[in-house]
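Sample 1 of the test manifest.
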Amino acid sequence: MKEELDMEQKEISNHTLSYGTYIFVWAGLIIFTGLTVLFSGVSLGAPKIAVALLIASAKAGLVVAFFMHLKYEKRVFQIMFSLVVLILVIVFVFTFFDYPYR
Amino acid sequence: MSNAVNILLAKEKDYIGAKLGMWIFLFTEIFLFGGMFLIYAVYRFEYSFDFYNSSEHLNLIMGTLNTALLLTSSLTMALSILAIRKGNKKLSTIFLFITIILGILFMVNKYIEWTAEISNGIYPNSPELLQKSKGEILFYGLYFVMTGLHGLHVLAGIIILSVMLVFVRKDKIRESDFTWLENSGLYWHLVDVIWIFLFPLFYLAR
């Protein structure tokens, strides 16, 4: 029984990433950080916050998908996480449907 | 027979269940910070100009440095888990140790940053801050509360990871059973994700 459970862990760890992949993801995160700091100095006007949030979302996506290995997790984890993000988006969007028109 | 079953039950670890529980806890954390980000969004919409102005007074170099520190600590955290999965206890210990050091460095920077701001008379309800416009008061209020709560999470993470370091050394966390380390890692990465959003919203609103 104990061995079987260990097998279950082993099976999951078969999807384990390599050291190289993690370092690659980290390099991407650092490059994104450099980009977002660079863009903040450029006068883009209104879309500036959009660019900053887009880059932040890409970075968060990388961390969640690879470092938190959600990409390799069972479906149920991915569905639950997506629902949480969806609820957040709904809350933000609905707030701004209402707030600016008060 | 029943004795044998009891022993088996006691030994059995629900790997998936433990991870699911951790994720559900992380969801509550996402909503905790999510609510604060919503407040930020509304006030930034209302007082955009004041927010741009205040953001310029934050220490961008310090903020960027802290972002790099936390991102790198996330890397070493992931590497530590990978190392233990591959059965390399020593490497796992080293990576975990580096993660803790990077977390401490983050807190040291935060301390230097806050000390400078407080010595300039900028802290919640300070006489100098209260003389500023309403938007600026709100910006700094949110800044101190949100980065402060985030800092508390980093501090908690440092303590948790220190305990995990002892567990790895004592083989309580090992190749065949790394759930503790993995769940601690998930927490650490989430704290990183929250900072990824805090950084541009406060330091780059200029």
